[in-house]
Predict the 3D structure of the following.
Amino acid sequence: MRVLIVDDEPLARTALEKILAARADVDRFDAACDAFEAEERLAHDTYDVMLLDISMPERTGLELLSRIQESQRPVPSVVLVTAYAQHAVAAFEKHAVDYVLKPFTSERVNQALEFASRRTASERAAKLIDLMPHLGAVQAKDTSKIAIKSDGRIVFIDLEDVVVVEADGNYVLLQKKTGSYLMRESITAVAQKLEHYGFLRIHRSVLVNSSFVEEIRPSATGEYQLRLKGGKEFTVTRTYKKNLRSLAKFWIGTGTLLGE
């Protein structure tokens, strides 16, 4: 089996290459960092399976899939490997045979490879039916704005702009990249509402947006120091340090992410 990996994330490519290297039935695998390099490879080589990311700069995975289907070149079995499950229906419409969500496991990728090697129309339909309940849940949580009351108004805030949420007595302070909002709510209630949007609780009174985390450093006390983009730092208490595991999709290196 010949496999082409198409993903703009170096860590994702490395993880997939490791999985493919361990399979006895993979004769060869190549990797492309974007849709343009993938199209160039497909013009000169044939592949049985393509592990394709959807969200890539300039040209998406779905756009690449449309282009190669319109050409006269052989189209490999396509497995979408991405963090965005809401695109699954469009992917199946373009005849993708399976859909693997990031962060993925070796077991799930191997399952998809087995499925891709024996694709049939009926199996594709069954796979789409299996995915539908999950897609509904993901689409429901993808709304990126929240509404709060502020000075007698209802203000809509884009969660991507919220950096930190801190408890302040009976209130919480939502700190954006520029500006902040104070609302009457408990930090625990806010943590429950925002956990599916990439916010991590690192202290009994602090939530951080994981997309702004730049570095963590262990300390002799068993706690961690967490630094955000821009330089602001927080202490991650031992109670909440397990939440740091969700910061990275993949761990490259010896040992484990938190050294446990």
In short: Residues 2-140 form a domain with the Rossmann fold fold (CATH 3.40.50.2300). The two ends are 37 Å apart (CA to CA). Confidence is low (pLDDT under 50) at residues 135-142. The chain is about 30% helix and 30% strand.
